[in-house]
Specification:
Blueprint (H helix, E strand, L loop, with lengths): L2 E2 L5 H13 L28 H11 L16 H6 L27 H6 L14 H9 L21 E2 L7 H7 L14 H12 L13 H14 L4 H14 L3 E4 L8 E6 L24 E6 L11 E4 L1 H12 L13 H4 L2 H4 L5 H10 L1 H10 L6 H4 L5 E6 L6 H4 L1 H7 L14 H31 L21 E6 L2 E6 L8 E5 L1 H13 L7 H23 L4 H11 L3 H10 L18 H9 L27 H5 L16 E8 L2 E10 L21 E6 L8 E6 L3 H10 L3 H11 E2 L6 H15 L33
Parallel strand pairs: 3-6, 7-10, 11-14
Antiparallel strand pairs: 1-2, 4-5, 7-8, 8-9, 11-12, 12-13, 14-15
């Protein structure tokens, strides 16, 4: 539905500003729970055999799927379209009170309950045309010029207010916004798709008649998993709670099962064998309010790539749980309580479980857990992801080098100063900011630094052996990760991708656990402005902690200059006096460096540890001689785009998909715009910290982002010309010339068929990890500098 900039109430804005002023100098990444079978939900595969749901997936769910679906209208299952739409946005970052939760299939289970929450029908006609039918018909006559930019009157930005018209209001809405039909601001649907959707909407938008039936062997597997989680002894209860709080967002895939079938782990009022009745708690560590059971419930909506965080479970995993958690010798007198205080400090709540067991659990699936706080639980994440650099590499401290694992007194002494924002909800905001957002992190920096300095004096300092290299018996590719931040979204992949980045993190057990509980378990997308601000500011301290751990491996003399290069600017230097302890520039490194580029030497040296597990070079972005992609291949011909300096990069979208047509098949690449900043230490005014002259481009085979911003198409014969034209761009006008020749605009006559090819390529790339892409970030290039988007008010409502 049509979107417009929102004007927040004056008093509410003033109240928000009063909060912001307290932290102006101080500065989660968070998917939505998918519904159980409440009405009659459709199967989980992203492309489904039901012809109507298949068209809905490919043409509608690509914008109406995640939390930021316009008007909260989710079309990924019958649950969603029968629930309908709401005039209340999920994202309203200036709100002073927590919003009512509207998780599909969780916070209401019947249509009357959703109507009481303000949702109205988009499928009922009452003798006329339904909302869906009216908007589909209007979209057929939007009058867009094919292949041309959209009219300036159409706002497609992600910072927008939804105009959500009920059936009786659609005529007035279309009178005011004649080009506001569906699909909004896009090319017309293919005729067959349009006719199928229109006939379906006109006939009452009926749901499929049959429910998916689980095979007996699948039911048996889920029962075995439920049996494990519902054991009654006190030790098993604490272990089950710990695992649940880390898997509540997971898309659980049974070992060896159909790649299109996934489950969720929930807390239910009903026991196994009965219809699951999910307890709708705001956070996974909230008090369930009485007896409950852990249940495995099928995911019955379309799988969205943004929300799709896959975790394998089954007999092998249960054996691993027993070995990790139940076999070690530890005891527990009483179970910890359920409360924000307990959930806000997981290191305290689960202290009875050996730290080695908990850290090993996280490392076993490091990609999954890092992905959970990179992807979920939000869809629009600019406020959260501007706390990280555009691309950086992540590695992990080996358990045997982690004092929180090897020194029993370390966590005992550290826990009192490791509280998270969600653990303190009482008292004056200014006092709480000072205690757990400022003083707490500084105290812990000093505490950790002193303990590790003492250790370094006896061992000679941290060395390559102190970085986790993976477990020989498990998936060790997770030991090296690359994180991408792309303005309002982020992604994480295996391995070290691209050129050596500006920054890197090393993560130990206390940091890993706190990032997860800050950005995932403790984050509430429906929370008020204070919650969202404190979460983001605390993450700023956690980022610094990971960077400091990384610096400890480098020679003492380079640590401060390198740190200062990440935090340039007068204001950030003043902030460091407030938020950071003195950097350790004395304790030795245990590595004998051989070059004058120790950061690059260390990071690339990590790839020489167990080199069979990950590529030591990147044949497009980071290579020499024979290690590079051959110049006669498509990848090799794209290598000039990765050279620096790259003055053209600033004009390109964050994520571009390049289709290279090579006869009977496509080769798909992702062009990643790496934006440079003087620092990422502040909440807002990102434009003042941008350094576009330092921007670069990373070229990645295949796809990894949930949100393509633009598509380019080129023939194999025309590839060299495309590369040369990109490299010549020095203005927005030059970029538009590239778009006019190679770009696929939202209004392009072939937009939908090309998008289908990209989606199919993603499915073929990895069917288990694939999901439906989201078009809410798709650009409409115009004659304006892309940096202007940074002037958008960071905390605009919606």
């Amino acid at each position: 539905m049509r979107v417009e900039p929102e004007r927040s109430p004056h008093l509410q804005r003033l109240a928000w500003l009063s909060v912001l002023l307290l932290i102006a100098m101080a500065g989660g990444l968070g998917g939505q729970a998918i519904a159980q079978e409440t009405f009659q939900a459709s199967p989980a595969a992203p492309m489904h055999a039901d012809p109507v749901q298949d068209v809905l997936n490919r043409r509608c769910v690509v914008c109406h799927g995640c939390y930021d679906a316009p008007c909260q209208l989710k079309l990924s299952s019958p649950d969603g379209w029968l629930r309908g739409a709401s005039k209340t946005p999920v994202y309203a970052s200036s709100r002073l009170e927590d919003a009512p939760m509207t998780r599909l299939g969780v916070d209401a289970k019947t249509l009357p309950a959703w109507r009481r929450k303000g949702f109205f029908s988009v499928t009922s006609s009452d003798g006329g045309q339904s909302v869906l039918e009216q908007l589909l018909r209007a979209g057929r006559n939007n009058g867009f010029e094919l292949g041309a930019p959209l009219p300036d009157t159409l706002d497609i930005g992600i910072l927008r207010k939804n105009t959500c018209a009920a059936r009786s209001e659609v005529a007035d809405y279309l009178s005011d916004h004649p080009q506001g039909g569906m699909p909004f601001a896009m090319a017309p649907l293919p005729e067959a798709d349009y006719r199928r959707l229109l006939d379906w909407a006109a006939s009452g938008a009926q749901a499929p008649a049959a429910k998916a039936v689980l095979p007996e062997e699948v039911i048996a597997q889920t029962r075995a998993i439920e049996t494990f989680f519902n054991k009654v002894d006190i030790k098993s209860k604490l272990v089950a709670r710990y695992i649940y709080e880390h898997l509540f967002l997971a898309h659980l895939h049974l070992e060896g099962d159909d790649p299109g079938r996934f489950f969720r782990l929930i807390r239910s009022r009903t026991a196994p064998g009965k219809q699951a009745d999910e307890i709708p708690s705001r956070r996974p560590f909230d008090d369930p309010g009485g007896a409950f059971f852990y249940r495995m419930v099928p995911i019955n909506g379309t799988i969205l790539h943004k929300e799709h965080m896959v975790y394998e479970i089954g007999p092998e995993r249960l054996k691993r749980y027993r070995d990790l958690f139940l076999a070690p010798d530890w005891t527990l007198a009483t179970l910890p309580t359920y409360s924000s205080d307990a959930g806000g400090n997981p290191l305290s709540t689960f202290r009875a479980i050996p730290a080695r067991s908990r850290y090993s659990f996280l490392l076993d699936d490091a990609l999954f857990f890092v992905r959970s706080f990179i992807r979920g639980p939000v869809c629009y994440g600019q406020v959260a992801v501007n706390v990280i650099e555009d691309r950086f590499w992540v590695s992990f401290l080996d358990p045997d080098a982690d004092l929180s694992i090897t020194d029993p007194g370390f966590l005992k002494d550290a826990i009192p100063i490791l509280e998270l924002p969600v653990a303190q909800s009482d008292g004056k905001l200014s006092g709480r900011l000072k205690s757990f957002l400022l003083l707490g992190p500084v105290k812990y920096q000093q505490f950790r630094q002193e303990r590790y300095a003492l250790k370094a004096s006896g061992t000679g300092g941290p060395a390559y052996a102190d970085i986790w290299k993976g477990d020989d018996s498990r998936n060790s590719k997770d030991a090296r990760l690359t994180v991408y931040r792309n303005f309002s979204s982020a992604s994480v992949v295996n391995g070290f991708v691209g050129s050596v980045p500006e920054t890197a993190w090393v993560i130990d057990f206390p940091l890993f656990e706190r990032i997860y509980y800050n950005l995932v378990a403790g984050f509430d997308v429906f929370g008020n402005v204070e919650h969202q601000l404190t979460t983001r500011i605390y993450m700023d301290s956690l980022r610094r902690e990971g960077e400091r751990m990384f610096l400890s491996f480098l020679p003492p003399k380079v640590r401060e200059p390198l740190h200062d290069s990440w935090y340039e600017g007068t204001f950030v230097n003043l902030l460091d006096l407030w938020k950071e302890s003195d950097l350790d520039t004395v304790s030795p490194s245990g590595i004998s460096f051989k070059t004058d580029r120790p950061m690059a030497e260390f990071l690339t040296g990590l790839l020489d540890v167990e080199p069979q597990r990950w590529p030591a070079t990147d044949p497009i972005n980071r290579c020499h001689g024979a290690d590079c992609a051959a110049p006669d291949t498509v990848a090799g011909r794209l290598r000039p785009l990765t050279e620096t300096p790259a003055p053209f990069a600033r004009y390109l979208p964050d994520i571009s998909i390049l289709i290279v047509e090579t006869g009977d098949k496509d080769e798909i690449f992702t062009l990643v715009h790496d934006e440079a900043h003087s620092n990422v230490a502040f909440l807002f005014n990102e434009d003042l910290r941008r350094e576009p002259e330092k921007d670069a481009l990373t070229v990645v085979p295949g796809q990894f982002s949930s949100y393509p911003n633009f598509i380019f198409r080129v023939s194999e014969d025309g590839l060299d010309g495309f590369v040369e034209e990109v490299r010549k761009i020095r203005s927005q006008t030059g970029y538009l010339e590239l778009v006019n020749r190679y770009g696929i605009r939202r209004t392009h006559s072939e937009f939908w068929s090309l998008f289908d090819r990209i989606q199919a390529a993603l499915m073929a790339q990895d069917i288990l990890q694939a999901g439906l892409l989201d078009l809410n970030r798709y650009d409409d290039p115009k004659l304006s500098d892309p940096i202007e988007r940074l002037f958008e008010f960071t905390f605009s409502s919606d």
